[in-house]
Amino acid sequence: MKDFLERIRNCEIMVGDGAMGTMLFTKGLQPGQPPEIFNITKSNILEKIAQSYLDAGADILETNTFGGTSLKLSFFSLEDKTDEINRNAVLAVKKIAANRAYVSGSCGPTGKILKPYGDTEQETVYESFLRQIKILVDAGIDIVCIETMIDLNEAILAIKAAKSVSSTIPVIATMTFDATPKGFYTVMGTSIFNAAKGLEKAGADIIGSNCGNGIENMVRIAQEFSKVTTLPLIIQSNAGLPIIQGTETIYPETPEFMAERAKELVNIPVSVIGGCCGTTPEHIKAIKDIVNAMQH
Amino acid sequence: MDILSSISQFLQQGNDKKVLSLTKEAVNNAIPPQKILDDGLIAGMNVVGQKYKAHDIFLPDVLLSAKAMYTGISILKPLFLKGKMQDRGKIVIGTVQGDLHDIGKNLVAIMLKGAGFEVIDLGNNVSPENFVERAKKENAPIIGLSTLLTTTMPVMKTVVDIVKNDGLNKQIKIIIGGAPVTDEFANSIGADAYCFDSISAVETVKKIMAKDGKM
Q: Which of A39, A147, A179, B68 has its CA 20 to 30 A from that of B51?
């Protein structure tokens, strides 16, 4: 496969895949179970999900390792399975990708709050990311994807861990912002400006935002990022914010709606456009069609 | 500036060392502990709460102020007659079974403690039965339920149903909150109130306690 960053530098726009967690719920994941449990019990389902996103036209397929740091897995007493959980997830996606898509290793927050605000040492968080990313890289991922971060310091530790595992592997880093009356901020109070500067300084190759917002806010977030950084951007939007009907959770944005708004992302330009919670292979296909139409 | 205003100021800045030394000084100056709590610590935490609500400050600032408040309370607690600090009422809170998120719930606990309530925090992934058992055992008139996940929202209804079936819905009120929770959802499951954030949780608890003649 061609070099990922080379293609981005050549202004090619790449399409990411869509949701994992919400897809796993439709495949039998029970509330309260960590999504990573499927990596050791039902990795055939990971293959099916990867296949459906590949068929939809995704250029990048993510591993089911969002909660795969030993720190996060320890919430479920699964830290002893860290190696197996991360390795299996990569192998499942790699098998489907078969050099037709890049395999991106997902790294989400550890669930701990760093000192002085919380009780966890920086070193502990760094070591936990280092361990996870080393397994992912050894198993053969093409990209590290640090995502859904709300604490800039935690994101920076993860980026540094990734860079120390491999100085050449592309590193994506995204944070999740809330729309407040005073602008976009993460829960921990990081602005888009500070996020862009901090992630860039730590060595990320592609930066942006995922989760927490529907496509319209994501367009605004991308516009703000584009004003404060020259790095390539990534946006992975939810299919809107969830609405509860009875006991069912519905993500309101349709594939057509998201794809139409994604045109604005292409115009900015955002280099990687994908989906987060509530998006499906249909959403990804609709976005891919728009991107293809606009690029040719 | 008088010493109580100083305590409030330093608490707002999250300076636990200053809050500690000034609280000790206030005690040595024979200021009544209740006054130090109300006009120093709680007054400061109220400002922090309002600023957080207005997005002037963020979670890290609140966490530091809360730490400072605990430091101050640790000095005052032995000075109150037994049970005196619990006079404002007890509340049992936790994140419902199946959900491990607790930042929001912790924040509510901090703010309630700040307002002088006794908070029995059951942590996360708490079973419906456990909530009700503890509320009964502690004689707490309020259970506070939190969830971030949409998938665990139905657990809130289970708690409401258990309380109702046990005939306890006059004694125990249930208040709920969390990102996906709404007023409509609270009504639909028969919860007593929905709280948008930690500030409204404190306001709601005060209202319920006042109605019950507990304040």
A: A147
